[in-house]
Write a structure and sequence with these properties.
Number of domains: 2
CATH class of the largest domain: Alpha Beta
Number of strands: 11
Low-confidence stretches: 239-243
Helix content: 25-40%
Largest sheet: 7 strands, mixed
Structural class: alpha/beta
CATH topology of the largest domain: Rossmann fold
Oligomer: single chain
CATH superfamily of the largest domain: Vaccinia Virus protein VP39
Strand order of the largest sheet: 3-2-1-4-5-11-10
Length: 243
Amino acid sequence: MYGPGMAELYDLLHEARGKDYRAEAATVAGLVRARSPRAATLLDVACGTGAHLRHFAELFDKVEGLELSEAMMARARAAAPGAVLHGGDMRDLALGRSYDAITCMFGSIAYLEDTAELASTLRSFAEHLAPGGVVAVDPWWFLETSLEHHVSGDTVTVGRRTMTRVSYSEREGRTSHMVVHYVVAEPGSGVQHFAERHTLTLFTRAEYEEAFTRAGLDVVYVGGIQSGRGLFLADRGGRAARG
């Protein structure tokens, strides 16, 4: 789980590395509205710092977020002050209300441990959908397209703060173990170093699609977006066709 140190730097780092949260939110909103033109309410599951949520708030009448990390949720409150935020785990989603759109962005769905959890979580998404609603899931890398070993690194300067991010991912069976190290330097504060460790499940595309089907949803996969990971769109209305 992301701690206070990463929560503070998360958006700065990813935006400086080229991630365009506004454009991603607009893309997802456009795809949702192509299936549900009157969509007005949205729940962003695993909303993190609210980086997508704040832009969804400009595109939908009412937005809410669900987040497990208290440090990340504190940032989300500041990023999207008009949003209703819920503390909790996507595995235990039970909000007692429905939404026109439910999103899960930036590979967060891969924190689920197996296909049973994936199917049950997507089923709970479906149970929170309003009639005609749409689920949009930004997956992690598929098992069949993941790399055995992967190293990446970036150094960015934002204002007076210089940050370096170096990550190493190793695949063990169906699991991606990712270690990320950060070095942050700022006048008056010196140099700080901290690390995050993440365990992510590598589902196949077919397993995602089967889990949506088990949840009672028709699904389509849109490739070539979300940094190459693509996006799953699903609904109950039979409008989504397999791609």
